[in-house]
């Protein structure tokens, strides 16, 4: 029996039974492997770290996209930094946005995901609202004069090409390109196993935004407990919206979700004391 063992955490991890390796390559930026498993279906890993699976990607992608867009209420321009597998783009284009721009440093991730994991993007790359740019996220933000209502940072962990997407310079660039009342959300790891990541992100975001905090999503293959998603805005009212506030927006879009709901949206901002302590 062939196994894939994740290498993200020292002394703790997970392994997957592999039915078949569909593709493996060292791209210009990272080691990429796509394989099939009996339980999670197709799996994408970069540099030995699980990025997404057929079975549970909806949890992460729904929470990363719908929480900020529905909280904003009138987003027209959405930027996704990273997210080359297309899962987040899939959820964003379900909204009545004018444009969903995806910027990823590794074009091969996009092309290989289209070829071997088309279920994740579900045609989103061909949506007329979608724009794909192959570029470094920080370089793009510092070089463009466009403004965005929502910026979604769908990054890898802060290693390799994803490291810069957790830096003060990157968050400052997001701040400059955000419209008034806009929202930035980020992937911030599992607090139990990656507390320094959360502490660092909170320190950098709170220095730039009036409202910086986190919300939670339970993604089974992001092991170690609930995952933290970063939230930053100058409108503190947005994170306080109730399920009753969100539901009309949710129903107006006609979303069909498997994990996200207006009730989950509101509840996800309630953090346990041990996570709140990391933000002190």
Descriptive account of the structure:
This protein is of the alpha/beta class and 280 residues long. The chain folds into 2 domains: 2-52, Roll (Spermidine Synthase, Chain: A, domain 2); 57-278, Rossmann fold, CATH 3.40.50. Helices cover 31% and strands 29% of the residues. The chain contains 10 helices and 13 strands. The chain has helices at 57-72, 87-92, 107-116, 118-121, 137-143, 168-176, 195-206, 243-253, 262-267, 273-278, and strands spanning 2-5, 15-18, 20-26, 31-37, 41-46, 49-53, 77-82, 99-104, 130-134, 148-154, 178-187, 211-217, 227-233. It has a 7-stranded mixed β-sheet with strand order 9-8-7-10-11-13-12, with helices on both faces. A 4-stranded antiparallel β-sheet has the order 3-4-5-6, with helices on one face. A two-stranded antiparallel ribbon has the order 1-2. 47% of the residues are buried. The model has no long low-confidence stretch (mean pLDDT 94).
Defining key terms:
globular; four-stranded antiparallel beta sheet; 280 residues; alpha/beta; 29% strand; Rossmann fold; 31% helix; 13 strands; single chain; Spermidine Synthase, Chain: A, domain 2; 10 helices
